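re the bet — no i am not wrong, look at it urself. input seq straight from the record:
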Amino acid sequence: MSFDGVIPGMAGKVLLLLLIGELILSQGSLASAPNLLDLSTVKEGDQLRLIDDEPDGMLGDWEGSVNAGLGFKVLDKSQWTPIHTNGELALMTDLRKKTWPVSLAVDLLYSRSQMYLYTGNDAYRAKTGFGDFEIPAHVLMDLRVETCELALGVRKTWLSFDTVRPFVGGGLDLAWVKGELNTEEAGRSNIGRGAGFWVAGGMNLIFNEYLNFAFESRYSRVETDMSLGPPAQIGGLHYHFILGGNW
């Protein structure tokens, strides 16, 4: 008996049975998920809702930035000479809902400076920031100034520009200062804290979606009573080079 015609015929029947079985299985799978196929049951509003439910970044409808700044602060020269210019570090944050025209701003600034000064043949009159008193001649002084500012407010950045984005900001400024004048005989610390305001402006240079470089100039005004001597101005002019990230 020859099997030349039987084997191809059997193979065809087996293939046909496999195709029928696959079709039945696929029909069963589709029947178990009618909502995925029956587009007639999906309304236009439902389609829009599905699109809107897609994840939109890490914070959804919110976006923000964290920036680190390096620069200097210039105090009132008449009150803080000879060390009225201090190196300054800044940490700046922004947070806003995408429908808002401005961002909430929270900035922290810290400045510090130190200088040794010899009075020479004449007596030296310490400025207001150090207590407003007289140091005799031929005395070596160690002068130090520290300031810290917490700036709360809003910041407006023009996002329509692709590469260079200007910004302005302002709000409440909470400031603290300590002026120290130490000699071999004695040491004095003049401390003050108070509230005032700040305003700032600058430019962001956008490298990509997540990284930016910026320059900012800022003015803060806070006048407060001091632990020694008369009141003093503890705000000032600030200049920062800033590197930050966006999300």
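see?? DSSP finds four helices and twelve strands in the chain. told u. also Confidence is low (pLDDT under 50) at residues 1-8, 29-37, 47-55. so pay up
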